[in-house]
Amino acid sequence: MGCGIPMDWLEEKIEKTARHIRNLSFRKAMIAYILVLAAIVFILSYLTMVLCWQWEIAEWANHEREDFVEVIYKKGPLWGTDYTFEAGTDSRKLLLLDFVRVWCPYFYAFAGMVVTIFIFYQKRLASPLRILEDSVEQIRGNNLDFHVHYDSEDELGSLCDSVEDMRRELVRGKEEMWMLVERQKELNAAFAHDLRTPLTVLKGYTDFLARYLPEGKISEAKMADTLALMSEHLKRLENYSRTMKGIRSIDEVPFSPEVIRLGSIGKKIQEVVFALGQAGDVGIFYRGCTLKDGDNGGLRVQADENIIMEVLENLLSNAIRYAGTQIEVISEYDMQKMEFLLVVRDDGKGFSEEQLIKALKPYHKEHDSVEMDEHFGIGLHICREFCKKHGGTLDVANSIRGGAVVTASFVCQCNL
After folding, report:
1. What contacts 393, CB < 8 A, 6 or more positions away?
2. Domains of the chain
3. What are phi and psi of 315, to 5 degrees?
4. Which of 109, 161, 263, 355 could share a disulfide with 297, CB 3.0–4.6 Å?
């Protein structure tokens, strides 16, 4: 137990020192490596020279030469070529020892530089360069699902951090581009989807005139009203196209509430219901617009009529697709919550459990729909977004009598 603390302290100090060395800049690290190399070269050269010196002295001592020191000093850095060795001396050994003793510092310095460069590359360059190379390959392959990390605060560590910052910016830019593409896709689908119902309304009025005008069952006043309604819908369709052209997402659809009468909203709903009823085989019945306490629709409220009509037309478009024989439309105004409620109920088979969860998500399509290829799967999602703009909500459910029920609410402040 007593030895555990000193060992832990020593390991901590070693780790701290290693971390400090690892975080040194290249200039400081190179100076440190050179100083260590110089110290090692000095020590090895000193030991080698002393060893060779002692070996030479021992060789001369074998020949009982008392003047061996004088002989060694007189020979110069190396044995002279004109020097005559005594018989019995190992001249080759003496020459080799003298050569090693003189040239060992240069050899150690050169070998030490090679080893130092190799160690410096392996310790300080190999790992970060490999990380950077792999990162570049990943980015070149359009794969950004990785992280660049090098545990050092030196120049290459900073470079790795910069590459990681660049990768994050690329990821963020790619996500923004993906969101932009998705929004544009959603906008295009919404535009194509929302064009259907106004065109169907116009087709309903056209069928109505084509059916009854030749028989003389339409008075001039009724025909004038019908043509005025068709002109109004064409103008609304033109304004809608102009609006959608200048925006980049559904979120940018303008919200412009005005003071209008509830009765006016109810009249427009009735006109759309009538036109869609003429264009299809499904009977559409409308009840409203009344207050919950039974008053008439003369109350003035602040509402964006265009948004309310867009939601109505989308809900009716979906209901007609799945209804059996009839659709019921109900509108009312809740004075306490100051909400305008719009309910569309059909007598179809209703929503499945999965559809109740996913129906409001964009591009959701019913798997058993025979019109799947023509259906964008975005109608209810658009309605929910429009309701949010008006401060309301969109709820889907199944009726106890069978069929689907969709309720849209719009916050409409009462203008007394």
Report:
1. 384, 387, 408, 409
2. 4-143 (no CATH), 180-411 (3.30.565.10)
3. -65, -40
4. 263
